Amino acid sequence: MTASLPLPHRQGPPLLSALGLTKTYGTTRALDGVDLSIMPGESVAIMGPSGSGKTTLMHCLSGILVPDDGSVQLAAPGTSPVEITVYGEEERARLRREKLGFVFQEGLLLPELTAQENVALPLMLSGVGRAEAQDRARQWLGALGLDGMHERRLGELSGGQAQRVAIARAQVAEPLVVFADEPTGALDSTTSEQVLTALLDSTTGRGRTLVMVTHDQATADRCSRLVRVQDGRIVADSACGSRRSDGYATAHPAGGAR
Ligand SMILES: Nc1ncnc2c1ncn2[C@@H]1O[C@H](COP(=O)(O)OP(=O)(O)OP(=O)(O)O)[C@@H](O)[C@H]1O
């Protein structure tokens, strides 16, 4: 059960701020004037009925989509905010590659690559040398409990293992925010619990920020905050049970946040 707690007093500037987000598809108003601020270290679950605008909201927050109206600002701690909604396609792609991580229901891993190559790929696309990228990928796979599996291809991994590879890939470039869309939706309940723990430990467990779309109340209950969306609007925004994971030591290969 979700406790409907008020959000705690939040100090400092938000990491992500959305103001007046509006997105229309034909006659469908997918987002209808959404304001949302996300603080560093929060884990935010976005819930709502099918078609309520959850994915559209997450895609606007992460620069996958540009809203018709409104703005999204991203401010790394200690830096001035950048307005990602005015960025062109190429700048948004670079921002997503370098500053944001993504975990989707289907991990979107490339089946012809090994687990290690899949995790190393985003680093190599950002210009990190092959040897270093592979090394960092191997460390992340180890941190997510996949030691000894780095040479396996997707078909040689279970659903839960593949999803942990996807989590490693989303984290390897040390993103400011990890966005997850139903990251455990295709898994059985035990595996789902384990993958969610790995996701929380490796993000908020080390002070990073997680924004997750989910249909599952138990998943949302493990986040620090629950945002409910309906008809393209935020209809509730409250603190959850706030079980912040403490997997810091096990979830980061270097044992510390950047
Ligand atoms: N590319 C698109 N073209 C047309 N309509 C779209 C498009 N994407 C989303 N929509 C519509 O916008 C509304 C919000 O969609 P969105 O995918 O954000 O909802 P959701 O809450 O994530 O739904 P679900 O839980 O079913 O995934 C829906 O009515 C949907 O049909």
From TrEMBL:
<dbReference type="InterPro" id="IPR015854">
    <property type="entry name" value="ABC_transpr_LolD-like"/>
</dbReference>
<dbReference type="InterPro" id="IPR003593">
    <property type="entry name" value="AAA+_ATPase"/>
</dbReference>
<dbReference type="Pfam" id="PF00005">
    <property type="entry name" value="ABC_tran"/>
</dbReference>
<dbReference type="InterPro" id="IPR017911">
    <property type="entry name" value="MacB-like_ATP-bd"/>
</dbReference>
<keyword id="KW-0067">ATP-binding</keyword>
<dbReference type="GO" id="GO:0005524">
    <property type="term" value="F:ATP binding"/>
</dbReference>
<dbReference type="InterPro" id="IPR027417">
    <property type="entry name" value="P-loop_NTPase"/>
</dbReference>
<feature type="domain" description="ABC transporter">
    <location>
        <begin position="16"/>
        <end position="257"/>
    </location>
</feature>
<dbReference type="GO" id="GO:0022857">
    <property type="term" value="F:transmembrane transporter activity"/>
</dbReference>
<dbReference type="GO" id="GO:0005886">
    <property type="term" value="C:plasma membrane"/>
</dbReference>
<keyword id="KW-0547">Nucleotide-binding</keyword>
<keyword id="KW-0813">Transport</keyword>
<protein>
    <submittedName>
        <fullName>Putative ABC transport system ATP-binding protein</fullName>
    </submittedName>
</protein>
<dbReference type="InterPro" id="IPR003439">
    <property type="entry name" value="ABC_transporter-like_ATP-bd"/>
</dbReference>
<dbReference type="GO" id="GO:0016887">
    <property type="term" value="F:ATP hydrolysis activity"/>
</dbReference>
